[in-house]
Amino acid sequence: CSRWEEEKNEDGVKWMQLEHRGPYFVPPYEPLPKDVHFYYDGKPLKLSLATEEVATFYAKMLDHEYTTKEIFQNNFFHDWRKEMTSEEQEIIKDLDKCDFGEIHKYFVDKNEARKALPKEEKQKLKEEADKIQEEYGYCILDGHREKIGNFKTEPPGLFRGRGEHPKMGMLKKRIMPEDVIINCSKDSKIPKPPEGHKWKEVRFDNTVTWLASWTENIQNTLKYIMLNPSSKLKGEKDWQKYEVARRLKDVVHTIRAQYRKDWKSKEIKKRQRAVALYFIDKLALRAGNEKEEGETADTVGCCSLRVEHIQLHPQLDGQEHVVEFDFLGKDSIRYYNKVSVEKPVFKNLQLFMKNKDPTDDLFDHLNTTFLNKHLQHLMDGLTAKVFRTYNASITLQEQLKALTNPEDNIAGKLLSYNRANRAVAILCNHQRSIPKTFAKSMQVLQEKIDAKKKQVEEAQEEVKKAEDEFKDTKDAKAEANVEKKKKLLKRLEEQLAKMNIQATDKEENKQIALGTSKLNYLDPRITVAWCKKFGIPIERIYNKTQREKFAWAIDMTGEDFEF
DNA sequence: CCTGAAGACTCAGAAATATAAGT
DNA sequence: TACTTATATTTCTGAGTCTTCAG
């Protein structure tokens, strides 16, 4: 436990000692073999090195749907031309006349060749990767050797945003040492830049947690090299996050009473704030910062909802005051929900929407800064996102309480856990695309279940037969046989039950992503306590990485922990 | 002091890779 | 046992939230 209980640093100081090797730079571009050609207008054309490299980025993505989109093609072609020599610019004027087919095939083949490599060769590659990990993947922070999260620079390539991103296809440039700022402690061994290069800057800022940073050229924002979630620094922050959420538990009732009162406020701004907060609390919506138009995909959160994103139904499917939400949230994941809301909320929404265009802001007097200022005033450390953490964790705790049957076997209890986890994922709208092999693997499972059912039936008959025989003969051998057959039947029935559970779980899970809530929203202490209480080995819920990340919770939690 | 931009950090699903299960 | 396929884990980096800074 001691590791989590070392003394705290003062005011914003994150470490006293930080030593590392700097980022690992991706290997330089390898030119194409002579017999792999690019064709323009049907004729082979030898490209300059820089032009060729960018061409390979496009060629590699050729069978991806992305490359068929006009925005992608235009952005790519625009940026590609900038890399060309003036001679090349003279010739290559039309993307449609470019043939990347041979280059594409070269990379597909190369990939397959790599997969087909003999075992020893693969082993060798792995050892090389491990060596790099060993050398660059760790740092020393305040005397502890800590794992780094992302120690490699991002390779150059074509930008792929999520959803309808206006910058898709743009060229993401190669990161050079000259772009990189190193952060470490003054008295540490300062990382050496690669031969013949120098760092952009070396600084000694112990009020931040990053080891290195650079500015990315697509959005002009900073990227960082930071520690792995298993590190003490990240673990403590995570713990702190859940402690804030637990404090919200104590005041949430007051806050709810407050926003209900504010629904009737004379100030429109307060009313909007109160309705937005109701959504954030009840539906676990994100805050919704405003975003710069044209720079990113068009997505929204609570405060940035527009009139077009909701529809009001005084009556719907036997419910009153129904709000129908339909918008794209983070990562362009669709949020669709029909919710019966309290009457004053409904009335307020009607008011907010009056005389507005579909593209106008629903909460036109509200932004996240104003909302968060209010929340800060209600509780120290409270911001909009704390509601998501709080509601997620409290839901897990409640669902576990409601769903766990102490009589169940481990598989049954695990199903209950997954269902509780799933309830949270649904609340937070964590979705995934249905796995490509889903239908097939479901069918395979169903066939197995049917086969097992048959076996169970057969076994039942066998038992009956054995029992009849015993009734006739009354001999010990026949009696033993009855026992044997019964045992077999029981085993088969258990197998069948397990398969049925598996099928249910799989079906319920096909479009839901459990990982994000498990990793970021659910206080791990709830899970640890549940495992202890019901005798479930923690490895059945958390894999190795997750156990490392949640080491702080596994260390300190007893079975009576309450969120 | 206010405001918008920059900075720092958390959270997000897809894709790549490793491992287990099936044949 | 060797190969193939399904599943689990890990990596990747984009997309949010919230804080801090500069003019």
What would your notes on this structure say?
The chain is of the alpha+beta class. The protein has 4 domains: 2-22 and 137-225, Beta Complex (DNA Topoisomerase I, domain 2), CATH 2.170.11.10; 39-119, Orthogonal Bundle (Arc Repressor Mutant, subunit A), CATH 1.10.10; 233-382, Topoisomerase I, Chain A, domain 3, CATH 3.90.15.10; 392-556, Orthogonal Bundle (Topoisomerase I, Chain A, domain 4). Helix content is 48%, strand content 11%. It has 17 helices and 15 strands. A 4-stranded mixed beta sheet has the order 10-9-11-12, with no helix packed on it. Strands 1-5-6 form a 3-stranded antiparallel beta sheet. The chain has a 3-stranded antiparallel beta sheet with strand order 3-2-4, with no helix packed on it. The protein is globular, with a radius of gyration of 30 Å. The two termini are 20 Å apart. The protein binds a DNA duplex (23 and 23 nucleotides) through residues 150, 152, 154, 159-162, 165, 208-210, 213, 216, 218-219, 221-224, 226, 237-238, 241, 286-289, 291, 296-297, 299, 301, 329-333, 368-369, 372, 383-385, 430-433, 435, 437, 440-441, 444, 513, 515-516, 519-521, 543-545. It catalyses: ATP-independent breakage of single-stranded DNA, followed by passage and rejoining.
